[in-house]
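Hello K.,

You asked for the raw outputs rather than the summary table, so here they are, unedited. I folded two proteins back to back in the same session to keep the settings identical. This is the first:
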Amino acid sequence: MTRILPDGPQIDIHRVALERQDDFDGWRDAARGLVEAGVPPEAVIWTVEGQTDELFGSQPPPEPSGGGFSVPNAFIGLAKTVVCHRDPERFGLLYAMLWKLRRNRRAMEDRADPLLDRLRRMEKEVRRDAHKMHAFVRFREMDDGNGERMVAWFEPDNHIVRREAGFFMRRFNNMRWSILTPQLCIHWDGETLSESPGATKADAPGGDPVEETWKTYYKSIFNPARVKVKAMTAEMPKKYWKNMPETEAIGELLATAQAREAAMIETSRAQESPLFSTAPVSSWEELARLARERHGADPSNSGTQLVFGEGNRNAKLMLVGEQPGDEEDTAGRPFVGPAGQLLDDMLERAGIERSNLYVTNAVKRFKFVQRGKKRIHAKPTTGDIEHYRWWVEAERELVQPGLTLALGATAARSITGKTVTISKVRGEELALPGGGTGMVTIHPSYLLRLPDKAARTEQRARFIDDLKRAADRAAALAA
């Protein structure tokens, strides 16, 4: 078969039929002969045996001359991985890269090369698929007539089954097992690895008695306070859920996570001290007494002090921040450090007198890690927030503000009792548990961390608008 190039000359087309989808050795031998014969990438058609209709004639690839040539080890590793990718163009792309390396041994160092970038992305996808196979293969017991055999069903995205067989042989060396997939099945009898054609899920066993015990255990250790759905599904895509016994319970566990978390917190609070009652606090003096009784000592943050809220105790607008910083801990007052100074500036620009506000924090003690002589801010946990939440609720009850403005995610969690995404609820009026109205915006420290001047200017203007809107709504709601 010949092909006419745009500038006129005819070239012979070579067809290479590899034995398997992951046939690295066959690709390497054919590619070596083609490169040595000077056959350009556009003159080669790569196929796999049984997947070509041979409508057109073509020449077989030339045999290697035996002289050979060297390529960087990095390319060999890349090629061994990429041949396992599902992309039908993978063999041709690798040959095109080899063609470049024949003329420029440093071609693998060109990070701006679109071809190399595509191959690197394919390599990454194969490695990710292999990781999923290691993590999500679940064996179930069955009797195959020769005794106990452990069988698993898995659906890889790429041709990785042979590539990963060694991992399972090493890990389950003393166990008879089979891994069934739609394209290829592998079997280990304790000494020899064998293969068979692809199977269907119906060929794999269903559950076994051990799974019920495992599901009960999984439910008992499931911690609703640590649930991050996006992170979980990114690491464990739903396509693998049907193959794992524990995932049958995930829907129920996620649906009840918030209620279970609240129950855990209340149980912990009740067990911690009889002082944590739900009785309302009737005066500022009582609040101060209870605060010192409940939180007067904290061995985990020795050297810190409780930082009480301050300001107008009849304020229409109440601000709740995250926690005291190093300077707030030293002064014993909220918002006096860099973030507090920026807040004062933003309030002034919004036309709001800080003396008309009541300002406090969700967490009342500076949480830090010691690094040399410096105390570095540590992010409060959900437990930290809940530990002091009664205090914030008591302040709200005593102040009776028209609106409570949460500065940042920690404060939002404190006043709403749940995790919220600032970008989704920012500036919206929220009905708060126990009554009252809330609103959420960013914390001033966020503005201090923005490196880009344009973004900093934009976000500061938006923060000022949030303050103005909160003050206006607070006045209207308190009227």
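The second followed immediately with the same parameters:
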Amino acid sequence: MPVENETWNPVSLLTAAYRAAVTGADAYRGVRSALRVDRGILRLGNRFVQIGRYREIAFVALGNASASLALAASEALGERLTQGYSAGPVALPESVPFHSLVVPSAVPGTPRGLEASRAVLELAAGLGEPDLLLLLLSPGAAGSLAEPPEGVDGTAWGTLLLRAAHELGSIEAATLARVFGTGGTGGRLPSLTGADVETLIVDEGLGGALVGGGPTVPVSDEERARASSALGRLGGPTPRLSYAPESGPPPVGRPPSRPVVVAGPVDAIRSAGDALVDRRWFTRLATLSTPLPPSEAAALLLERSEAELRGLGGRLPAIGSRGSGASQGLAVFAGVTLGGFEGAIPAGAVDAFLEAARAGLSRREAVVALLPTAGGEAAPGAGRFLRLDAKGGPVRGELPMRAGITDVGSVAILLLPAPAV
């Protein structure tokens, strides 16, 4: 039987892990760390430059964490910022004196997304040497960058990418957006502006080159072949697509814009794990990032949890038993994106994950939770968890706190409490 004391309180434990995960992967904090000015020297991710070399400094913040990214840039650089634009699910706070557009959908092709893309390209085209463009991207940025291929309307483009995510997975869908999308995707942005470009990214685990369609990373031949193969494997009718124009070379002498990841799944999982270590739990990593459908992601978490338990000798030492170190139980973590298109959780995916976990639970005392790190004013604010009652029936719960405004995917946790003596 699980321990019946205040330490074994699933809501308390999961809330602590949730709060730590969102804080550890905070987009605002990540950008503030990557953008600093000290004695006239500007830190830009992994490089340092004289801030006086730039005539104008502008930013573009896109995706689910756009508001946090824009706020961080504004507070880091203050009056040195001359232009700024944000597009995402949350409007900028009034304290940030730049334009923002609310783009409710992370899927490309919507009227709001196309409006945002054209505003981004117009801002970029208006900058030249010696200006600086800060490109601040988070999952969902593709909705404001990946314009439809020539001859395809926005609705059909978005539908195609959603089908690809459902049938083929997140990475294949993101690759299609990079290879066939027009606008600022596929490495074209540096050739569309005369400014230096610095790219800071919040990544949900698919890889920084895929976020927003990889606007500063040129498309490779391998990606083109992979995208063509994915298109051929899609079920149902698909529009005829041709490769988007290749990116032109940036001006001679400009440093390449290599994306710098400022927050990712490792930050969320490490912080959530530390929160439970402080409460005397064994913590183990099942996997850092799994862009899998809900049922497969749940099965992987359960499989890895059993493997970790076998590694501990098949059973947890009882609390209070000699030599146990007073461990409270085993917590196994995984980063998941549930197979959706960049920055979007498919409808019903959370319920499907928890139902698959319930069907696979062989230990009645275990608790499985899914904690989304994306949030916003309209977002459901709580993580969800599931356990079994004394008769083996499912008991579902919701954590009493709002999600954070970042997006490094969701953190899945399995808690297995140690038995009482």
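The first helix runs from residue 10 to 24.

Happy to rerun anything if the numbers look odd on your end.

Regards,
P.
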